[in-house]
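Notes from the pairing session

We agreed to fold both candidates in a single pass and log them together. This is the raw record for the first candidate, unedited. Please don't reformat it; downstream parsing expects exactly this layout.

Candidate A
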Amino acid sequence: MTEPRRPRLLLADDHLLVAEALKSLLAAEFELVAVVADGRELVAAAAKLRPDVIVADITMPHLNGIDALVQLRQAGDDVPVVFLTMHRDVTFARRALEAGAAGFVLKHSASDELVTALHAALKGETYITPKMAGELLSAIKKGPDQPADPVASLTPRQREVLQLLAEGRSAKEIASSLGISARTVEFHKYQMMETLGVHTSAELVHFALKQGLVEF
């Protein structure tokens, strides 16, 4: 009797030890098609390999997981994405869901919850870790009364530029990476300063760190 086909899974995490642990956790039920270490690789691998489901960290180099998901959806890819993260702030869960995530699991709960979340995602359901579900529901119910998410005031392209600036890239390097001119990079930079009410590059970097777009 032929064994049923295991769902094909793409894993995105820039921490090697975490990736290795997850491979062991998931090997019995999923076919791991690739492990990538940043958001740009995630978008490229998803397009090339067409996995059934993706597990992704949020804070990754070059392009964070949530903005990688935004790019997947813009490209018409509806693959379910489950985020596995250290971020306990409900703002991250809300951003993930608004981008189209199918799940949100905390890393320290991975062994108990990740497989459950993935099976739910494959059935078209959404899984939120119980540790945050109540808080997230309350935040959603508050609606317009809650403080606005400052990251949401930036365009996807501005967030890309901001993350690369915060990673220490020059305007020329960012321009080359994104396929735009250095002048356009500077334009995005000053537009962000105006939107966020900051006055220096250092303040922009501090904002990116505070909002989890890059790691400390």
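Candidate B (folded immediately after A)
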Amino acid sequence: MGRDKAGLPWHGSTLARRAAGLIARCCEPPVIVVCAPDQVLPSLPAWVQVVRDAEPGLGPLAGLATGLSVAGTRAEAAAVCAVDAPLAHPSVLAALIGALGASPAVVPHAAERPQPLFAVYRTELAFLAAALVADGERRASALAERCGARMIEPFELLVVDDIAAFDPGLASFASLDDADAYDRALAAPQPLVTVAGELAGPRELRAATVGRARRLLLADVVPRLAAAVPVDDETPLFAGDALVPAEAGR
């Protein structure tokens, strides 16, 4: 990319804030953000716990080891989302969480390769991940290979109604590996959301954040679903979301 991805703008927010908001939509807080020892992060909410790798340059597997270790103090499993997946939809992550069962991990196979950074892992795998890093491994996919993860194919996801409706192309697995990919994703239409109640304005609008929806509607709105974390202007919106007056959503 030529610059740090975490702070890249995304429709009034940042890539890091959107990824954290996606995780918060599907999991209990705090959301753990893992970064390099000297990495400067954009502003993040109080319900985000920032954890830094012990050493720089050890690759994504080390980040998994760090995050799973911290999450293991409070949960048996953790969902993972890379910072450069702003088109990811919560229905896909929810389906992966629901598929975990007794498996050590659930890793989707999409775009002709495993997607270990948009997956679900037992937190006890932190020890295996750390051991692999100590042996010189850097690939995040190595953890799935060694633990016997359940691999989920695209057709298994597309039978889920919300995924078929809101992410039929499985853009959830599109990563922004260079500036051109980032520019193309940023230029794509923002998520289409609906407006409930007696609010003035369009019944449908395109907004990637609550702040944009509020500006378009000239009204204080929140997503209709129950939020595990406080809603602010940078709270991400996703295709299919419904907005209601703020008081109704509290």
